Records
---
Amino acid sequence: MYAQQVETGTKAIKSLAEMGPEERAFQEKIDAEIKIEPKNWMPDNYRKTLIRQISQHAHSEIVGMLPEGNWVTRAPTLKRKLQLMAKIQDEAGHGLYLYSAMETLGADRDEEIEKLHSGRAKYSSIFNYPTLNWADMGAVGWLVDGAAIVNQVPLQRTSYGPYSRAMIRVCKEESFHQRQGYEILLHMMRHGTQAQKDMVQDAINRLWWPSLMMFGPSDAESPNSAQSMAWKIKRHTNDELRQRFIDQTIPQLELLGCTVPDPDLKWNEERGHYDFGEIQWEEFYEVLKGNGPCNRERLETRRNAIQDGAWVREAAVAHANKKQKQQAAA
Ligand code: FAQ
């Protein structure tokens, strides 16, 4: 029955009748909202899908530190610098938390990170865009963390226990990030010079469409959605979440006194939602192929960071080994 409930995506999924007894029992557990834990039986593809999604999510958090890291040295005040550094550290924490959740599925962290560095793993398209002015720090917090929250709040109810529990903490921190981002923009719009107000509008103009792309391809073009919805890894489709984000963001945009670069955006009374213009999907797929404005720079920065930090990891291992020997001898 669950198969009929999911009409999205480009790949067909199995019906209960087509499943073997183990898989059927697994699906019934999911349908009864019982969480799947690391030691429980799970279909290979459920495990693979989760490793794919959680590793991509972890990589996004880690690469996502770079566009904001770009502004730490140029934050306008000490207070803003401290806030920005705290936010970036939170994102690092989310990445590490998510890699740990991924490891509970038997994946190897070093191997997954190597896939990222060799360009074989994906991470969120949004982090391949540059951050060109201080208002981008507000717009990233407001729009990028805002989109991340809309996507991640339902993931608190995802079917895999460790992922769902990780999301509870991550969402609390992301909500705070979204507010601090919005406050930067509100401050610039209310107290800034005309040049600063123009920066806000410029940041929104550049980041609006890439933020909408964060939710992934449209439902009709999404290969993974049907199965992920049936397994309750995803609780809503890409298009549902994109619409939810737009509906809740436009009133905030109006309060700022700004606009989005979409002449087709308008409230649709009948649907009870905003209508919006066509997303440039060619641009999205080019970014996924590695051809966005900053893809190469981002991966190079991550590769350098791993190389430059090698001595710290080696020293930590040497220290741990020495301590272990001392404890064994005592
Ligand atoms: N960018 O069939 P679907 C953050 C890929 S965290 C790149 O629809 P799915 C915090 C997709 O992986 C942001 N690739 O796939 C922060 C799939 O690839 P594959 C990250 C994308 O998985 C804020 C293919 O396209 N959040 O921002 C994108 O069912 C500020 C087909 O797509 C998460 O990862 C994209 N935008 O749905 C940090 C949340 N969209 O492997 C720092 C968890 C799709 O089949 C600063 N993830 N693709 O070749 C999810 O909810 C899902 O994975 C989706 C994609 C919704 C992203």
Note: The chain has one domain: 16-329.
---
Amino acid sequence: MKVIVLADYEAVSKEAARLVEEKVSENDQLVLGLATGSTPLGLYENLIDGYKTRGISYQNVKTINLDEYLGLEKDHPESYHTFMVEKLFKHIDIARENTFIPDGQPSSIEAECARYEKVMNRVGPINLQILGIGSNGHIGFNEPGTDPESETHVVELNDSTRKDNAQFFNSIEEVPTHAITLGIQNILKSDKIILLASGKKKAEAIKILLEKNVSASFPASYLWNHPNVTVIVDEDAYQLVRQKQ
Ligand code: F6R
């Protein structure tokens, strides 16, 4: 695991964008694994800028998102479908049929997990997976306790995750209780993984991650089992590790 510590969120976002653009330039048919949430917003802004001012094209790129809330319509303002369209897809030249996100309102949840698993097998493997990290160590929505062999599955979101994500809803009651997520096994099949973290509220999670104890109680620790992971953090997220040095 390579760790890059940068001054602030802006620098983290720029470096992540540079790495993504490098991969897209090497392979215009790249399969990108994408995350939502507040962390990758700066990355997506930089990618939009790269498309508009540096001539980076996504015409043949495919994207596979990590997760979607269960129970939200595609066009719900807080669905991850809406997030991806508003924050990235509508601003670049990606073909919408090349973007994949689980359906949050499937008629059968089981069938939807199986369908998304097929998407992974048909479109994947993911060449470059972008991850954020939950304050409880989740990646995707793989909450503590997740089996390392897990594939696409339904999860009950932890109270702490629902609290963290309540900022995007009117109240915590509105935050969905369940989500569909790629599993740990799917994530670890990616050729390369970049995990981004910024801000003091991620400092504890980054400290635990870098302690290198691989355990189901902290799912991001499974990343130690992957040969090509780069963690890009800012000084605020790295502060508890610095304190120990
Ligand atoms: C979202 C996802 C989650 C987030 C994590 C951090 O697609 O996979 O694991 O990356 O919850 O969220 P933020 O970035 O909002 O702190």
Note: The two ends are 18 Å apart (CA to CA).
